[in-house]
């Protein structure tokens, strides 16, 4: 089986396993990956990204097979757009019942 057919029929779960092995040097279950396996996992991950993922994130492989590079201006524009799209939500206030129970569990050293 050649590389193109392997990538064409690779499920996303396998891509994620290979990506984990290439990034961390371990399979998801913790088994150490030797250098040859890591190199192969990296090559397959990059080929999968180029074939299946239409991603323009920094340092990924684009659909043209080239690594995506962005300059500072492009990154600032991307992050400012992402920040505008994400609503800011207030933190939830703690429940007063649980707050009093937490305070009662705290040791007080006033009797020393």
UniProtKB/TrEMBL annotation:
Superkingdom: Bacteria
Residue ranges of the region described as Disordered: 91-112
Biased amino acid composition, Polar residues: 95-112
Species of origin: Colwellia maritima
Protein name per its UniProtKB record: DUF1315 family protein
InterPro entries: DUF1315
One of the Pfam families matching this protein, by short name: DUF1315
């Amino acid at each position: 089986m050649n590389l193109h057919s392997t990538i064409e029929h690779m499920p996303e779960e396998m891509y994620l396993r290979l990506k984990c092995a290439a990034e961390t040097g371990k399979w998801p279950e913790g088994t150490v990956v030797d250098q040859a396996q890591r190199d192969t996992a990296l090559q397959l991950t990059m080929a999968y990204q180029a074939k299946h993922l239409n991603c323009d994130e920094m340092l990924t492989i684009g659909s043209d097979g080239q690594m995506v590079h962005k300059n500072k201006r492009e990154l600032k524009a991307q992050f400012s757009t992402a920040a505008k799209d994400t609503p800011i939500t207030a933190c939830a206030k703690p429940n007063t019942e649980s707050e009093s129970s937490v305070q009662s569990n705290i040791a007080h050293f006033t009797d020393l």
